[in-house]
Amino acid sequence: MFCLAFILTACGGSSGSTPISATAITTAQSLTVGTAIASFSPLTASGGATPYTYSVTTGALPAGLSLNASTGAVTGNPTALYTPANVVFSVHDANGVVASTTSTVRFAVVGAPITGAESVLHDFGANGGGDGANPSYGSLIQASDGSLYGMTSAGGGAYGAGAVFKVTPAGVETVLHSFVGGAADGAMPYGSLIQANDGNLYGVTYSGGLSNRGVVFKITLNGTLTILHSFSGSTNDGAMPYGSLIQASDGNLYGTTYVGGANNLGTAFKITPTGTFNILYSFGSANDGVNPLGKLVQASDGNFYGMTYYTGTGNSGFGTIFQITPTGTKTVLHTFSGTGSDGANPHGSLIQANDGNLYGMTFMGGTLGLGSVFQITTTGTYTPLYGFATNTGDGYSPYGNLIQAGDGNLYGLTASGGTHSTGVAFKITTTGTETVLHTFGGPSDGASPQGSLIQASDGSLYGMTYNGGANSTGVVFKIN
C-alpha cells in the first residue's frame, strides 16, 4: 500500500486527503471594449490531487479574454462587443476527477461611450476612376472576416454603374466587383449587402439584368458574382428594388421592389439562396400603401414589417407601415398623415429594438415638416418621438434607418441640416431625447449621408456619405 500511495503521488501530484471540491464566484462581468478585465477567478479548487485544470464547459469567453487552465484566472482586454451570455467553468484534478461545483458567469462587453469623434477611413474615387463613388441609401456591413463591405451606386466602378467594395477597419479599400449592367449583370445598387449563413454576400441592384429592371445577386468575399434573378416587372414579378435583402428564420431571402407586381406599384418577394423566386405580396389594393423603398425586418413574432413611400396610386399620400405574415397576409398598421407631429414619406426601414417595439424615421413630416423619428408596436400603436430641426444645428431629411447600439440608444444620419447644411450623425433615446454627435461637411470631411450607420465589433460606428471628401464623391467614416 505504501508503494501504491507513492506511485499515485508521483504520477498525479498530491493525492489529497479529501475529494476535489470547488468554490464558485459568479459575479457578472460587465466590460468595455479596450478596457482590461480585472483578474477574475470563477472557481477556487481544493482537495483532490493537484495540479488542477480549469476549463470552459459551456459558452465562449468574449474575444480578447482567456482562461489560465492552471490557475483558473480569466484575464485579457476585450476586443469586440459581446451580447450578454452565460459562460460555465469547471475544474478537475490530476486524476481527472471533476468537481461537482461549477461556476456560471454572465459576461457582457459594450463599446466605449460614443462621443462623436469622427475620422475619414476612405475617400471614394481614389483609384483612378475604377473606385466606387457616391454610395446611395445603403449601409456598410461587417462580415465574418472582420472587414466592412458595401456598395456604391451610379458613377462608381470601372463602368460607371456602381461597385461592390471591401474596406478594412484600418481603411484599406478593395473593389471586388464593378457592375456592368446589360443582360448579364446588375447596375446601380442603392441598398446594402447582407452576409447569409452560407458565408456569401447577397444584394440587389435597381437596374441591369435581362429586362434592365434590376437583379438579385450573390457575391463571395473574394468577388465572384452570380446573378440569381433578373426582375422583369411583370404582374408576377417585381422591378427596381431600392432596398436590401434580409435572411429570415427559414433561411430564405426576402426583399421589396419599388414597382412591378400585379398593380405595378411594388412587391414583397422571397428568394432562396439558389434563386427560386416567388412574389409574397403585390402592393396597390384598396387603402394599401404603394412603392416600398426600404427593406423588411422580421420581428420576434416571426412576421415581416416594412414601410411604403406613398399611400395611393399616382404618387399620392404619405406612406404606410405594414405587416406581412410569412404566408403573404398583409395588414396596414399605420397610415402617415404628414400633419401635426406625424411623419410622412419614409425612405428607410424599421428596426426592432430590445424593448420589442419598432422604430423608424420619415423623410418628411414631423413637427416642422423636416422628418421625424417614431415608435410603433407590432400591433400598431404609433407614437411620434421627435421632429427634426427642433434644436439649433439639428439635422433633417433622413433617408436611412436607425440602429440600436450596445448602449441601448438609437443612432442615425440625416442628409441635410447641421452647421454646414450637409447632414449630421445623431443619437436619440427610445423616449425621444436627441443629441447631434457630428456635423458633416467640414474640411476634408464627407457630406450628405443618405444611408445608415452600423456598430462594428470594436464598438465604433461606421457609415458612408454620398458627397464630400477629397474627391467630392463620398467617404467611408468612423465615429468613436
Give a brief outline of the structure.
With 480 residues, the chain is mostly beta strands. The chain contains one helix and 47 strands.
The share of residues in helices is under 10%
Which band does the percent of strand residues land in?
Answer: 35-45%
CATH superfamily of the largest domain: YVTN repeat-like/Quinoprotein amine dehydrogenase
What is the molecular shape? globular
Please give the number of β-strands. 47
Mean pLDDT: 94
Question: Which residues sit in consecutive blocks of at least 5 with pLDDT less than 50?
Answer: 1-14
CATH class of the largest domain: Mainly Beta
Number of domains: 2
Q: What is the overall number of helices?
A: 1
Give structural notes.
The protein is mainly beta and 480 residues long. It has one helix and 47 strands. The longest helix has 11 residues. It is globular and about 85 Å long. The N terminus is likely disordered.
What labels describe this entry?
480 residues, Immunoglobulin-like, Methylamine Dehydrogenase, Chain H, five-stranded antiparallel beta sheet, four-stranded mixed beta sheet, 1 helix
